[in-house]
Amino acid sequence: MKISFFSTKSYDREFFERANQNFGHELVFYSSKLNFETRDIIKDSPCVCVFVNDTLDQEVLTALADNGVSLIALRCAGFNNVDVRAAYELGMSVVRVPAYSPNAVAEHAVGLMLALNRKIHRSYSRVRNCNFSLQGLLGFDMAGKTAGIIGTGRIGQIVARILKQGMGMKVIAHDPKPCPECESMGVEYVDLTTLYSDSDIISLHCPLTHDTHHLINTEALSLMKDGVMIVNTSRGAVIDTCAVIEMLKSGKVGYLGLDVYEQEGDLFFEDLSDKVITDDVFERLLTFPNVLITGHQGFFTEDALRAIADTTLQNVTSCENGKPCENLVTPDMVVNK
To answer: Are residues 181 and 246 in the same domain?
Structure first.
């Protein structure tokens, strides 16, 4: 099957071409994002492969269907950027990669916690300039502190295990469907109010839905401990960025680690070092010494890219051959959207 890839980088081509040796599909790569402006690029391709910042709303999907596209292959776990109901009404199938390497994202989340706490990013810059002062680099022992995890799917489970068994933290969690593995290791499930008020560190691992959009807002932040650490490696819009900025200014939020950002579509995955960033909210975030931002790299390991390529191409092969695909996204999976 001919597959048209959007939002691709050199590493996407490398891993997909390597994996395709076992599948034999025709791969066409585009560096541009898929959106309304680029919807008509596709010619004679029944499948498009997209990433987190491609836009597949009803208008784009209709244009794709008119161009003969019948399969949307997401090379990521989330599908909030796809109007799944519209796709099925147009006769399209949608598949995804639900679990490429949960360890990659979980380990990155914990890495952000450690870097923020011990000011590793600031210390690195100082030492490079031969400044060996410890002033302003004071951290805290994570052992014995309380971590609150929102969302205990595959990634959240691993974060819970690392923090509880590896670092000696008390771990509490919130999820509509409690995880037996977490419960067996002593994770206590609580309501959000309790999680907000009791946690020293809050780590976000929930999908972006109508219910989780701006879950971390002014009201939620007001319930948290003074100096709380918040880490988000899920989706940017789970956090109301402007509300968090106000709490950073007041000191209510003591540490903020982000691998995702609400308006990242115009920023992340590109080299903008010689450009003027016009996003004033993002620029304001960069002024805080207690904010650490990475550009959606939590997934970015060799293991994850290999798994993403293999699973994506297997999804396409199953659909092409009319076989059941366990990674099919169906309209009933869309919560309040």
So the answer is: yes
- Which residues are within 8 A (CB) of 205 and not within 5 positions of it... i.e. 6 or more apart? 105, 109, 149, 150, 151, 152, 153, 155, 156, 159, 233, 234
Q: Give the CATH number, domain containing residue 164.
A: 3.40.50.720
Q: Are 7 and 34 in contact (CB under 8 A)?
A: yes
Residue 205 among the catalytic residues: no
Same-domain check for residues 125 and 271: yes
pLDDT tens digits along 146-195: 999 999 999 999 999 999 999 999 999 999 999 999 999 999 999 999 99
Number of domains in the chain: 2
* Closest by CA position to 193, among listed 210, 174, 179: 174
Given 296, 302, 306, 320, the catalytic residue:
296
Chain segment 199-253, per-residue pLDDT in tens? 999 999 999 999 999 999 999 999 999 999 999 999 999 999 999 999 999 999 9
In the set 96, 108, 235, 262, the catalytic residue is: 235
Single out the catalytic residue among 108, 264, 270, 306.
264
Pick from 285, 296, 301, 283: which is nearest to 112 by CA? 296
Distance between CA atoms of 152 and 128, rounded to whole angstroms? 39
**196 and 305 part of one domain:** no
Helix segments in 162-255, DSSP class H:
180-184, 192-198, 218-222, 241-250
Residue 181 known to be catalytic: no
Is residue 84 located within the same domain as residue 132?
no
pLDDT at 335: 59
Domain extent, residue 28, equals: 2-100+301-333
> Are residues 44 and 68 located together in one domain of the fold?
yes
Q: Is 128 a catalytic residue?
A: no
Closest of 305, 296, 288, 230 to residue 261, by C-alpha: 296
Asked whether residue 239 falls in the same domain as residue 262, the answer is yes
Residues 285 and 221 in one domain: yes
Q: Could you report the per-residue pLDDT of 35-89, keeping only the tens digit for each? A: 999 998 988 999 999 999 999 999 999 999 999 999 999 999 889 899 999 999 9
